[in-house]
Specification:
10 strands, binds 1,3-dihydroxyacetonephosphate, 8-stranded parallel beta barrel, two-stranded antiparallel sheet, alpha/beta
């Protein structure tokens, strides 16, 4: 059974750790993120971008696959299935499809329109027990072909968005999706502290988790970050392990071309990466 992400994030905020949100792309990703979380006894959020949802046939397929995998793998830790950077229509579709959590990303709209649309999604989602993440200000980097300019969130806008009843908030503090560019100045903790002051006990979400140094991750958690999104790092780990397998000519030995063998090193690499992040975020043994 899937759960929404509200309780796990409120518990994380109180307990001074963060829950990992790991983006999934297919069955291998789903299975490895679930197995790693079970092994670490950590609650987990499976994130699905609209692009990845489309790639996996659609949101209904994703919801059915994740629910069945949780059951077949006998996963006992809390699992939330969450739409990542959803559009207004995408969020509605995921609420219908059986997701347990959605992000409505209205950061490209002017703040009043963002608030209005977020409120509508909150009402719809909460009537079904589904949690909602919203976003203020653009977060840098690229997500499904959309480039942000690395803006920082305005603390007052953050506070205003809370009035919609959202369960957790993504706010830019200099974080960027993908690999951080040379000369990236790091997270802006002054901005994070200002935002925290305005939003009180609402859990904060840190996007662009790939490549943020451990000390900055820990400091952000100490300042109120309770959910950290990781995508690129798992993709890179998968690609590296798969390349090594091919370059070593293993696909040409016996039945090494069998996808169950060909994809195994990459799958194992995803699992190890997720375990490493769970330890860094401190969510192990928190169920
Ligand atoms: P990375 O790809 O940088 O880890 O970011 C993931 C993310 O924030 C998904 O919303």
């Amino acid at each position: 059974m899937l759960v929404n992400a509200t309780k796990m994030l409120n518990d994380a905020l109180k307990g001074h750790y963060a829950i990992g949100h790991f983006n999934i792309n297919n069955l291998e990703w789903t299975k490895q993120v679930l197995l790693a979380s079970e092994e670490m006894k950590s609650p987990v959020i499976l994130g699905v971008s609209e692009g990845a949802g489309k790639y996996m046939c659609g949101f209904k397929t994703v919801a059915a696959m994740v629910k069945a995998a949780v059951e077949d793998l006998k996963i006992t830790v809390p699992v939330a299935l969450h739409l990542d950077h959803g559009t207004f229509e995408g969020a509605k579709a995921c609420i219908e499809a059986g997701f347990s959590s959605v992000m409505f990303d209205g950061s490209k709209y002017e703040i009043n329109e963002n608030i209005e649309k977020t409120k509508e999604i909150v009402n719809l989602a909460h009537s079904k027990g589904i949690s909602v993440e919203a976003e203020v200000g653009a977060i840098g980097g690229e997500e499904d072909g959309v480039k942000g300019n690395g803006e920082f969130a305005d603390p007052i806008e953050c506070k205003n968005l809370l009035a919609t009843g959202i369960d957790f908030l993504a706010a830019g503090i200099g974080n960027i999706h993908g690999v951080y560019p040379e000369g990236w100045p790091g997270l802006n903790f002054d901005r994070l502290a200002l935002i925290k002051k305005e939003i009180g006990d609402t859990p904060l979400v840190l996007h662009g988790g790939t490549g943020i140094p451990a000390d900055q991750i820990q400091k952000s958690i100490s300042l109120g970050v309770s959910k950290i999104n990781v995508n690129t790092e798992c993709q890179l780990a998968f690609a590296d392990a798969t390349r090594k397998y091919i370059e070593a000519g293993k696909d040409k030995e016996k039945k090494g071309f069998d996808p169950r063998k060909l994809l195994a090193p990459g799958a194992e690499a995803i699992k190890e990466k997720v375990k490493e992040k769970i330890l860094l975020f401190g969510s192990n043994n928190k169920v």
